[in-house]
Specification:
By secondary structure, this protein is α/β, with parallel strands linked by helices. It has 16 helices and 20 strands. It has a domain of 333 residues: Rossmann fold. The protein starts with 18 loop residues before the first helix and ends in a 5-residue tail after the last helix.
Length: 488
């Protein structure tokens, strides 16, 4: 059973429109005094909300890996799947916009059942069920919305999570506009409930609307054009300052079941090569102000995570292994030098795009921004935050530790696993740190106070990153935030 262990709320505005959030804060704090071990009875709590009508419509945005990928020609579900398919991932070229394949997004991943003898893995089923069963919402159809689809309805924004987040954010804005056209409600605004990377897509959409990142190194200032469509964003486990775990994925790959407290050995894994073909993974890495690297003595060192030469120096990209280069050369018309140039250009453009995406999200904001943000997350799990770089003199190469272990420094000093863990990990949900969810480093970097805070309110509980949408205590807070807004 999940238990609420930390509740931190920061109210930065006295605007009466935010009164309900003050009630939310008081409710959670006082209920915690009674018993932190009880699971809220959501059916009872939201009985009135379920019966009421006129609630603002909701957009649900899953995180990375949270949308199906379908081959429309064969009908094959490429993701999630038990075994690897013939699909090798997005093409590689410096023109990121042109790097597309035939796969299209299907539905949100509610559950994964890979074989009769394997347990069913719940992904977003419980979150959608909470909207239906407890809060009185019904799922809407983007293309054929009901006449009353402008209220008491949720719409799921499934997307190709491999592609650039700005591309997906712009598509979200276009779909919202088309939906408003169909509903004949140009004044309509939506509440957004977003998990993980989905929150970054929602934030960019709100801050910039349908605009791309500006060319070159021009400064980036939010227009808040997306506020015409979005009223508030409930951010569940969103890496607002990035995640070192994304960097680890680019180095080692990622298994969707690692955070589920049980292993499902047949589930298709996102390899390091898959990740390197996926621009969105780079955009999940720590922002410049949040990058942390340690030397062999566990002392901080300065690393430019978005410099191509640094990646080549430490051998981080799977795209630059000899085995991948041989395969890549067979599928292109380039010679060896042309192949190296193509891969280097792709990686350089991808890293730069990620850095600019972060700058856009980190741009200075007005304290009275038109979109309300609520941060919901976990801070009870030790979460990877700082890789260790050390030199393997015997093999004449660099070693990057993304998981703690015992080792000896070049001077022969023994570093225990416990010491490494203490230096490399901080509180979080196992993938996103508490600091990243709150955007704490953004505030530390301000030379002068701006009055800006990333989130006016924050709620913390105990659960792993992938399980946060299923946590009933956190669902309680998320549902409270959205059902409170009844349209007049």
């Amino acid at each position: 059973m999940s238990r609420l262990v930390n509740r931190r709320f920061a109210r930065r505005s006295t605007n009466k429109n935010y009164f309900i959030f003050g009630v939310l804060c008081l409710t959670v704090v006082t209920s915690g005094c009674i018993s932190a071990r009880k699971t809220p009875n959501l059916e009872h709590i939201f009985a009135n909300a379920r019966a009421s009508t006129g609630k603002r419509p909701v957009i649900v945005i899953p995180g990375i890996l949270g949308s199906e990928l379908i081959n429309p020609k064969t009908g094959e579900k490429v993701w999630p799947s038990a075994f690897r398919t013939s699909e090798e991932g997005l093409p590689i070229s410096p023109n990121l916009e042109a790097n597309r394949d035939d796969l299209v997004p299907g539905r949100i991943v509610e559950t994964v059942k890979l074989a009769k003898l394997l347990p069913e893995v719940y992904v977003y089923r419980d979150l959608l069920e909470a909207l239906r069963r407890y809060a009185g919402y019904r799922e809407g159809d983007w293309e054929n919305p009901a006449v009353d689809g402008d209220r008491d309805t949720f719409y799921v924004f499934a997307y190709d999570w491999r592609r650039d987040n700005v591309t997906n954010a712009r598509e979200l804005v276009r779909r919202l506009q088309r939906l408003k056209d169909k509903l004949k409600r140009q004044d309509l605004k939506f509440s957004v409930v977003a998990h993980s990377m989905g929150g970054l897509i929602a934030r960019y959409a709100a801050m910039y609307g349908d605009a791309d990142l500006p060319a070159g190194d021009a400064s980036i200032q939010p227009s808040w054009n997306g506020a015409a469509h979005i009223s508030k964003i409930v951010m569940i486990g969103v890496p607002n300052e990035g995640s070192a775990d994304a960097f680890a994925t680019l180095v080692e790959g990622y298994s969707i079941t690692e955070g589920l407290r049980r292993r499902v050995p047949l589930l298709n894994k996102l390899t390091a090569e898959d990740a390197a073909r996926t621009p969105s993974v780079f955009q999940l890495m720590p922002h410049a102000g949040a990058v942390r690297f340690l030397d062999e003595n566990l002392k901080p060192i300065s690393i430019d995570l978005y410099d191509l030469e640094v990646w080549k120096q430490y051998g981080w990209s799977a795209l630059h292994t000899d085995e991948f280069r041989r395969r890549f050369m067979k599928t292109t018309a380039h010679g060896t030098n042309g192949q190296d140039d193509e891969l280097d250009a792709y990686l350089a453009v991808t890293l730069r795009r990620a850095r600019r995406f972060h700058e856009a999200l980190d741009a200075a904001n007005d304290a009275n921004s038109p979109v309300v943000l609520l941060a919901i997350g976990g801070d009870c799990e030790e979460t990877f935050n700082a890789p260790v770089l050390m030199r393997d003199t015997k093999r004449n190469r660099w070693v990057t530790l993304t998981r703690p272990r015992e080792f000896r420094t070049s001077a022969g000093v023994k570093i225990s696993k416990q010491q490494a863990t203490a230096a490399m990990y901080v509180p979080g949900d196992g993938r996103v740190t508490r600091s990243s969810l709150l955007g704490e480093n953004l505030f530390k970097a301000r030379d002068t106070p701006t009055g800006f805070t990333l989130s006016r309110y924050a709620v913390f509980g105990c659960d792993l990153h992938g399980q946060l949408p299923r946590n009933k205590t956190l669902q309680d807070n998320a549902l409270t935030a959205i059902v409170s807004e009844v349209m007049r």
